[in-house]
TrEMBL record:
InterPro entries noted in UniProt: Class_I_gatase-like, FGAR-AT_PurM_N-like, PurM-like_C_dom, PurM-like_C_sf, PurM-like_N_sf
Protein's name in the database: Phosphoribosylformylglycinamidine synthase-like
Molecular function as annotated in GO: phosphoribosylformylglycinamidine synthase activity
Source organism of the structure: Plakobranchus ocellatus
Pfam families: AIRS_C, FGAR-AT_PurM_N-like, GATase_5
Stored PANTHER family: PHOSPHORIBOSYLFORMYLGLYCINAMIDINE SYNTHASE
Gene Ontology terms describing biological process: purine nucleotide biosynthetic process
Stretches assigned to the PurM-like C-terminal domain: 192-297
Domain annotation FGAR-AT PurM N-terminal-like: ranges: 26-136
GO cellular component: cytoplasm
Length: 646
């Protein structure tokens, strides 16, 4: 009986799911944070309003279902028992409630820590009363998200300032410096603190949403900590571009205030050809705005920044020089976290960065040709161990290509619950098997080697000519330890380890989206992809390939077994950090067996088979409109499927 109910329920759910008019690969959710504790020191009510506003201006560049669908978490950290602080907390709370009510959103959860004070000797040290707003909302098309890096469509974009005020002229902006980053630099708090009205937040949010849906925004960024100048420069730094800006204000305004006041607002970049449409729309919606100038694409010359206020030049510099200053604080931290040599390399290299040289000479949206389709889908064992992760992405990627993916734990093999005899492929997934104790994948390899049942099962699979194996990251480390790739062939025993994945030269865990070039190799999963350059997720602490003897590396290179490599912005294999995140010789990022059946990669193609999973793709690849649905890495999985169909 219970079964019948369950079956009914499942088929009912399946029907409902099938009939839903939603594209599940496009919908998602967006979340953002806002907090303004320093401004709250001057005016707790304004601080609370600014925290809510910042959270929304951070959220508004994702395509949300509706402003009224936004939900918030409120986290309060306050020294509430100290004199005057209870009243400040109350002011902040009342202001936040009223502001949210006016906008039409609400808090649905949160947490508080109301004893944020400590006695140090005879002194009581208080944390500034802080409200952190985390907002979240359904996202109707995750691909439409607008990012802050300038795109310079057709070589230059037009930059528009949205002051988020109800008055129609930007000359009425009070440009208050209280609680700003600039004030902090002068060890001051200031007096006059910015504030914001709910109506202008609603208007701007909705206008941005509409422009996103019409694909009229090339980039966009909110104005918050650091003010208008910081917003503009951050956009230029991210896009590797120059700027020619003239802020159209009357000459009485003090440049320092205009540039550094943290009045709520936003800057958007639009295509020259969309300008008339956007201007008309903003006028029609009565949203105040001013056109600031242009973004300039990175050319052969280093990009320049020119900023004027009402025709008077206030800043002229090369973008890279300003970016070096802006990055310096991060590098100070990095010098404490990573090898000094690597940090130095990254810092000097930054000046010379241009856009990654992505190159794809096939259409990833066109499926790989299958010789003759199989009656039954080939089976792939997605093998995981205690501490593995990424098994779902791996299963999804192989399923997308037509495989029947099975979730197999090492214990299933040990207990003989499954045999690999029915499988055409195995995929060893990434992660932290046995918490990387004694070195990455060492515990996993021990299970595979020293449990006789598992050892026999894996060996039988490896020896069958109709099988293939794929290892990613932790799985790659395992395949190296098992000698499935780069074995020491001078040993009499088959599969003797000849390669070890050692700690990255930076001395730390690297998490990046690195440019990867497919080499010409016998790897069946990389067939027809030679020369492809595209970004791939890197996420490891132990990715540096150390070969037992130089002749093993030599053989890998001469037999074309280095299947993929990290490349620089010129598309040349590199050992330079951070383009090569771990210091592997000749930029080697993955290795295959001479017969091409076994492939072990340190980066994660399974985490970026869809374009939306890539944090950056060139405009020509297209994130929206006529975009490619898939990244080139889908082809690895389709190639494996096609190989099984031979
Ligand atoms: N993502 C991974 O698989 C990480 C592998 C391993 N734990 C490392 O840090 O190197």
């Amino acid at each position: 009986m219970a079964f019948e109910i369950e079956d009914d329920l499942i088929s009912e759910l399946r029907n409902w799911f099938d009939n839903l008019d939603v594209d599940f690969f496009r919908v998602g959710s967006a979340t953002a944070i806002g907090e303004q504790p320093i401004k709250g020191l001057l005016d707790p009510a304004a601080g609370a309003r600014l925290s809510v506003a910042e959270s929304l201006t951070n959220l508004m560049f994702a395509c949300s279902t509706d402003l009224k669908d936004v939900k918030c978490s409120g986290n309060w950290m306050w020294p509430a028992k100290q004199e005057g602080e209870g009243a400040a907390l109350l002011d902040a709370c009342v202001a936040m409630c009223n502001f949210m009510k006016d906008i039409g959103i609400a808090i649905d959860g949160g947490k508080d820590s109301l004893s944020m004070a400590a006695r140090v000797n005879s002194e009581v040290v208080k944390a500034p009363g802080t409200l952190v707003i985390s907002s979240y909302v359904g996202c109707s098309d995750i691909r439409l998200t607008v990012t802050p890096d300038l795109k310079c469509p057709d070589g230059k974009g037009v930059l528009i300032y949205l002051p988020m005020r109800s008055s129609s002229t930007s000359s009425n902006i009070p440009w208050r410096l209280g609680g700003s980053a600039l004030a902090q630099c002068f060890k001051q708090l200031g007096n006059d603190v910015p504030d914001v009205e709910p109506y202008s937040v609603v208007c701007t949010f909705n206008v941005i949403q509409s422009l996103i849906k019409d694909s009229k925004l090339a980039s966009g960024h909110d104005i918050s900590d650091g003010g208008l100048i910081t917003c503009l420069l951050e956009m230029a730094f991210g896009g590797n571009c120059g700027l020619i800006i003239d802020i159209p204000l009357n000459s009485e305004e003090k440049p320092l205030n205009v540039l550094f006041a943290e009045e709520v607002g936003a800057v958007i970049e639009v295509k020259q050809t969309d300008l008339d449409f956007v201007v008309e729309y903003l006028n029609c919606e009565k949203v105040p705005f001013s056109i600031l100038g242009k973004s300039i694409a990175h050319d052969l010359e280093p990009p320049q920044i020119f900023i004027s206020i009402h025709g008077t030049l206030v800043l002229e510099s090369s973008m890279t020089e300003l970016r070096d200053m802006w990055e310096e604080t991060s590098f100070v931290l990095e010098r404490r976290q990573a090898s000094l040599q690597c940090v130095r390399q990254e810092q000097t290299g930054l000046k010379h960065r241009i856009a990654p040289p992505y190159s794809v000479n096939f259409d990833p949206d066109v499926k790989v040709n299958v010789p003759k389709p199989l009656a039954e889908a080939p089976k792939i064992a997605i093998i995981r161990e205690e501490g593995s992760n990424g098994d779902r992405e791996m299963a999804a990627a192989f399923s997308l290509a037509g495989f029947e993916a099975w979730d197999i734990n090492m214990v299933d093999l040990m207990d003989k619950k499954v045999s690999l005899s029915a499988f055409r492929g195995v995929a060893f997934v990434g992660g932290f098997s046995y918490a990387d104790v004694c070195g990455s994948a060492k515990g996993w390899a021990a299970t595979a080697r020293f449990n006789s049942i598992v050892q026999a099962e894996l060996y039988a699979f490896w020896a069958r000519p109709d099988t293939f194996s794929f290892g990613v990251c932790n799985g790659c480390q395992l395949m190296a330890l098992l000698g499935w790739v780069a074995p020491d062939t001078t040993e009499t025993k088959k599969c003797s380890q000849g390669l070890l994945l050692d700690h990255n030269t930076s001395g730390r865990y690297e998490s990046r989206f690195s440019s990867i070039q497919v080499q010409s190799s016998p790897a069946l999963m990389l067939k027809g992809m030679e020369g492809t350059i595209f970004g791939m997720w890197v996420s490891h602490g132990e990715g540096r390939m150390v070969f037992k003897r130089p002749d093993i590396l030599h053989q890998i290179e001469t037999c074309n077994l280095a299947a993929i490599k990290y490349v620089d912005d010129q598309g040349i294999p590199t050992e330079a950090y951070p383009l090569n995140p771990n210091g592997s010789p000749s930029g080697i990022a993955g290795i295959c067996s001479p017969d091409g059946r076994h492939l072990a990669l340190m980066p994660h193609p399974e985490r970026c088979v869809w374009t939306w999973q890539c944090p950056w793709v060139p405009e020509s690849y297209g994130r929206r409109g006529a975009q490619k649905q898939f990244s080139p890495w889908i082809k690895l999985f389709q190639n494996a499927y096609a190989w099984c169909c031979q």
